[in-house]
């Protein structure tokens, strides 16, 4: 039985004595994927959270605190995952949820999940960064509406629990952590989670997509583009925290091409792990670091942040979805031919 992250890690979260808003988040699988030379590769499957992404870790804490503080609604800017998580936890808490998206830049199917949970979708002109600025202004003006993007410190406290689980599951600190970086909150949350537990800090590698890699380029980007929509961000709100995490852990930022992301997504899926493109970016980065001889010896954990069903369109770029039409009387022969092809 999943008791939820607040009940499991209450003493580490610094929350007041409140009633948790939970859907049984956390306790996600950590799967031993392979051993490459002396590096043992583990995949942390965050897509197994209730709404299909790591966002639920932070949202249970942020929404619980918001309800405790008297909020009547939550608001966020999102291209998909935050929207779904915010809407689900707001619904569970009995609060209204408002999701702001950049007009024309988010495929409406990505909003189906948030809409199903009961969120109201609002579109404004501009990009994601402008949408985030807009919701921040709204939350600053009205105390009854809580901002639940990762700039909310309670979101990041909740996301620290990913580090706690890794330490609990492995029994020690891994040598390295590899994860995708968009708005840059998650990498900093893991860093602070490891530091708070004081059992060691892994070398942290933040992976971005080429075309949306401001932390690799060293400056903010106004025009970003990548198949990995969840990390298609040119002005990361938590850039300063991410830089601290990478510098203090002796890690680095690294970017991968869309072609490598798609290849990684296919490789993972053919091994039974279907993830969204942003998660595949982390695996593509892992492979690049390995081929460059930059992975340390020992346990390496890759954070796969979202389920592949979050984006059903991108896999059509590599997946063969058209069926092979065969005669029912020749089905076995057809299978035999395909086995040998």
Automatic annotation (TrEMBL):
CDD domains to which the protein is assigned, alphabetical: Thr-synth_1
Keywords: Amino-acid biosynthesis, Lyase, Pyridoxal phosphate, Threonine biosynthesis
One annotated GO biological process: threonine biosynthetic process
GO function terms (MF aspect): L-serine ammonia-lyase activity; pyridoxal phosphate binding; threonine deaminase activity; threonine synthase activity
Keyword Lyase on entry: yes
Enzyme class: lyase
Its EC number(s): 4.2.3.1
Keyword Amino-acid biosynthesis carried by entry: yes
Residues annotated for pyridoxal 5'-phosphate binding in this entry: 81, 182-186, 305
Cofactors required: pyridoxal 5'-phosphate
Spans through the membrane: none
Pfam families registered for this protein in UniProt: PALP
Location of the Tryptophan synthase beta chain-like PALP domain: 22-306
Pathway recorded for this protein: Amino-acid biosynthesis; L-threonine biosynthesis; L-threonine from L-aspartate: step 5/5
Positions of post-translational N6-(pyridoxal phosphate)lysine modification: 55
Stored InterPro entries: Ser/Thr_Dehydratase, Ser/Thr_deHydtase_PyrdxlP-BS, Thr_synthase-like, Thr_Synthase_bac/arc, TrpB-like_PALP, TrpB-like_PALP_sf
Catalyses which reaction(s): O-phospho-L-homoserine + H2O = L-threonine + phosphate
UniProt similarity note: Belongs to the threonine synthase family.
Reported function: Catalyzes the gamma-elimination of phosphate from L-phosphohomoserine and the beta-addition of water to produce L-threonine.
PANTHER family linked: L-THREONINE DEHYDRATASE CATABOLIC TDCB (PTHR48078:SF6), THREONINE DEHYDRATASE, MITOCHONDRIAL-RELATED (PTHR48078)
Protein known as: Threonine synthase
Organism: Sulfobacillus thermosulfidooxidans (strain DSM 9293 / VKM B-1269 / AT-1)
């Amino acid at each position: 039985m999943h008791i939820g992250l607040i009940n499991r890690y209450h003493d580490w979260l610094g929350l007041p004595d409140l009633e948790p808003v939970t859907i049984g988040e956390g306790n996600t699988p950590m799967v031993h994927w392979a051993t490459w030379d002396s590096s043992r590769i583990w995949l942390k499957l965050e897509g197994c959270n209730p709404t299909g992404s790591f966002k639920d870790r932070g949202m249970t804490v942020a929404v619980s605190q918001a309800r405790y503080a008297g909020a009547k609604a939550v608001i966020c800017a999102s291209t998909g995952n935050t929207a779904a998580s915010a809407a689900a936890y707001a619904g569970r808490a009995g609060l209204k949820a408002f999701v702001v998206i950049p007009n024309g830049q988010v495929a409406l199917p990505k909003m189906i999940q948030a809409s199903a949970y009961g969120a109201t979708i609002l579109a404004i002109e501009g990009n994601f960064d402008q949408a985030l600025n807009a919701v921040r202004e709204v939350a600053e003006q009205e105390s009854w509406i809580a901002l639940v993007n990762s700039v909310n410190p309670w979101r990041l406290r909740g996301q620290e629990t990913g580090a706690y689980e890794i330490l609990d599951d492995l029994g020690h600190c891994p040598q390295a952590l590899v994860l995708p970086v968009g708005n840059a909150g998650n990498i900093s949350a893991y860093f602070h989670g490891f530091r708070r537990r004081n059992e060691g800090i892994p070398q942290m590698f933040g992976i971005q997509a080429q075309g949306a890699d401001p932390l690799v380029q060293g400056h903010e980007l106004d025009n970003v583009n990548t198949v990995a929509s969840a990390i298609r961000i040119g002005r990361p709100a938590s850039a300063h925290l991410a830089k601290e995490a990478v510098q203090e852990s002796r890690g680095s930022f690294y970017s991968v091409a869309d072609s490598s992301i798609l290849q990684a997504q296919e490789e993972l899926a053919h091994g039974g792990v279907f993830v969204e493109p942003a998660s595949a970016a982390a695996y593509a980065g892992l492979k690049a670091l390995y081929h460059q001889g930059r992975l340390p010896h020992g346990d390496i954990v890759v954070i796969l942040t979202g389920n592949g069903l979050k984006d059903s369109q991108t896999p059509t770029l590599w997946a063969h979805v058209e069926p092979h039409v065969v005669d029912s009387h020749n089905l076995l022969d057809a299978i035999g031919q395909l086995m040998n092809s």
